[in-house]
């Protein structure tokens, strides 16, 4: 590592990536021109591997401890594109290193960094621990309580209906969430989430979902958001519990709220350990308060727009440079966009394998639109790509996006 | 092909690329997110292959006729990232197709498009034929004459000294050019270019080198530049006969000259055959006239800047969509930049394999800079990467670029 060996050029350090989906793919797309080497651990031919033939990758699962150790032996830093990984192996590797065999057959222990820290990933992957950590760090978030089967009615009585029953782990895109509207729903909720550790969360009456990508540049945790840099606060629109649209900057939001959202997101990420890029989802509540909904310790769907809107510093480049320890500083700790208005639309697989051809064709016909297809097999509802439109004003961007949203809605109708 | 089979989705057509250097690499980087498949013919592990593991590529030379036929069998459209290819094989393939063997052992002829046309590539790769074609098309260019050994003194007497003696073919980055300052130089010039077909060119007293990337969207040639779209006219600065810097837009150039440069470049490209992106090099003469110096029938070093400055429509995306026949139209036939000012600096290999580490480190420390390393072995003077800076104004961009130019100059001094 550079601190131990000043002759070792920072950008020659190899990164090991757990997971090779679209986030890993776009991370590789950012790494290639920087000359940063990435070794990917995921299934054969996963999206990230399709765009990186610079070295051999590892075929296997990013939750397989032995595969993770195999990856660690080949790299200098481990990072993730998904938080559902084995943090106990990551802890072992970060604390004790990994045993490697040299050419002469002798064995030695090699040090490998884990970024962000396994502690951060472990805290975040359990959504209740995450919320508990945020509360302890003085970050506003929804009131949550770890619950056993018998405690739900009590929670409802105290904090009111509706409330959310959520699986603590392995939950994403709304899977693992169950809205409990009245005491009568409790039984169904418990059945739907059977066998999982659960927590209950007070219902959030929000008027807008906001997201902020934050880069953490220092290893230590801080209670004031030190060592963090934010991208602008964006507006996210979900449909069927999946991110559909991202508007940059968030529409109809005052400069004050824009700044508060960045500050809160930086404070939340600053409270965690290790370096990297984080996606912070927030709610702008009906009463005007901002609370953190949840944090992803990795590049995030709400940050795809940065590829075109911040063409010299996407969230993927920030992830690479921050974990390499060479993230530059930005005036006011903000990474600005170059475009005045940006909108991102996810492309979900349609009913047939060619349902998305229409939207792809349309996207390529718009000068201000960038298309990103992930090379994934199109399955109904699966995220298979996205479109980013950059324009001189939000109404202009909205007008260009309108026909694409229409095509997306038609695909959704066909899927049902 | 789509016109013959309406059920065949345009973007499913596979492109075969002759050459896999950095231009091919950036073409693949543009193709990957579009879901456009490219099969590359070049040496093993060439830059383009490093970023495209979506399919098997072909190892071999892009001047090997049999390898080109092998490539043609696998694709729907052939294109080039270098003009020094065998145009007779391309003509054969474009005119007669290529024989393929089906699974059942039966043979059939498959049609394959060649874009741009072999006729364009053949005309351009012989610099004298290129100049002759431009003159016949009414495009201003330097007065040139194909010359035999004994005719040089005559050319000097008629058109004056100094003049340039140039090899007609396989010339690039100043190699193949010899300035003849007086009759006494003729012998040395002929010795330096011995064994090559030659032409002489009247000396051009220019005050600035300008380049315009032009996209040709129709197959037919036109004498008024119909079916062409231009990027802005940029200023190029050469050193040791290699492009060093590109300023976007060209500095200290009036709107009138900016427009004339685009118009002349579009007229020049419009006179050629087939579709694709073209780099047009022009001279802004001391007397204020513009003349075309030469044309490249492919993406060009002077268009690298488009990756960041035109983040939804780089020259590489334009190459792909134009040869696929789905290039959209742009208002006023201009592809605008999103940044106010852009500067590109080439990184040439230094004296040692690590000489460029300093400039790489510095480039990653600048928020408004994008780094592109090509994954090529660093050899002294070899183009191994480039840096693009986007900024709100040209003085701002120049201030950010200044320390990088200093490092580049230091590498050059070390090389000598």
Automatic annotation (TrEMBL), chains A, B:
Coiled-coil region list: none
Domain ATP-grasp: residue ranges: 131-324
Protein name stated in the entry: ATP-grasp domain-containing protein
One GO BP: 'de novo' IMP biosynthetic process
Pathway given in the UniProt record: Purine metabolism
UniProt-listed PROSITE patterns: ATP_GRASP (PS50975)
Pfam families: ATP-grasp, PurK_C, RS_preATP-grasp-like
Phylogenetic placement of the source organism: Eukaryota, Fungi, Dikarya, Ascomycota, Pezizomycotina
Domain of life per record: Eukaryota
UniProt-listed SUPFAM superfamilies: Glutathione synthetase ATP-binding domain-like (SSF56059), PreATP-grasp domain (SSF52440), Rudiment single hybrid motif (SSF51246)
Record keywords: ATP-binding, Nucleotide-binding, Purine biosynthesis
InterPro entries named among the record's database cross-references: ATP-grasp (IPR011761), ATP-grasp_carboxylate-amine (IPR003135), ATP_grasp_subdomain_1 (IPR013815), PreATP-grasp_dom_sf (IPR016185), PurK (IPR005875), PurK_C (IPR040686), PurT/PurK_preATP-grasp (IPR054350), Rudment_hybrid_motif (IPR011054)
Parts of the chain that traverse the membrane: none
Molecular-function GO terms, alphabetical: ATP binding; metal ion binding; phosphoribosylaminoimidazole carboxylase activity
């Amino acid at each position: 590592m550079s601190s131990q060996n000043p002759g070792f050029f920072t950008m020659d350090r190899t990164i090991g990536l757990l997971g090779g989906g679209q986030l890993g793919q776009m991370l590789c797309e950012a790494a290639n021109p920087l000359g940063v080497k990435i070794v990917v651990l995921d299934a054969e031919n996963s999206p990230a591997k399709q765009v990186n033939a610079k070295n051999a990758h590892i075929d296997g699962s990013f939750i397989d401890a032995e595969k993770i150790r195999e990856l660690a032996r080949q790299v200098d830093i481990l990072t993730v594109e998904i938080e559902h990984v084995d943090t106990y192996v990551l802890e072992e590797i970060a604390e004790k290193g990994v045993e490697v065999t040299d050419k002469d057959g002798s064995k030695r222990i090699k040090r490998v960094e884990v970024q962000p820290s396994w502690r951060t990933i472990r805290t975040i992957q359990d959504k209740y621990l995450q919320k508990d950590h945020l509360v302890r760090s003085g970050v506003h978030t929804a009131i949550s309580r770890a619950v056993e089967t018998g405690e739900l009615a009590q929670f409802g009585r105290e904090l009111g209906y509706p409330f959310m029953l959520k699986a603590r782990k392995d939950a994403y895109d709304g899977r693992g969430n169950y809205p409990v509207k009245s005491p009568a729903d409790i039984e169904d909720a418990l059945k739907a989430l059977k066998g999982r550790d659960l927590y209950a969360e007070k219902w959030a009456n929000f008027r807008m979902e906001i997201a902020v990508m934050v880069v953490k540049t220092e290893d230590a945790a801080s209670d004031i958001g030190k060592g963090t840099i934010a991208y602008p606060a964006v507006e996210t629109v979900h449909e069927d519990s999946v991110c559909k649209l991202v508007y940059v900057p968030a529409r109809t939001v005052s400069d004050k709220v824009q700044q508060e959202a960045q500050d809160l997101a930086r404070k939340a990420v600053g409270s965690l350990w290790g370096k990297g890029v984080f996606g912070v989802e927030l709610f702008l509540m009906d009463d005007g308060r901002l609370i953190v909904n949840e944090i992803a310790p990795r590049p995030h769907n709400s940050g795809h727009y940065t590829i075109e809107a911040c063409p010299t510093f996407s969230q993927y480049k920030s992830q690479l440079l921050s974990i390499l320890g060479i993230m530059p500083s930005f005036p006011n700790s903000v990474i600005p966009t170059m475009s005045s208005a940006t909108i991102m639309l996810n492309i979900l697989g349609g009913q047939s394998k060619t349902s998305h051809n229409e939207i792809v064709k349309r996207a390529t016909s718009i000068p201000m639109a960038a298309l990103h297809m992930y090379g994934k097999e199109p399955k109904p509802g699966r995220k298979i790509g996205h479109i980013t439109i950059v324009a001189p004003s939000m109404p202009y961007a909205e007008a260009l996006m309108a026909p694409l949203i229409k095509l997306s809605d038609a695909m959704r109708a066909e899927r049902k």
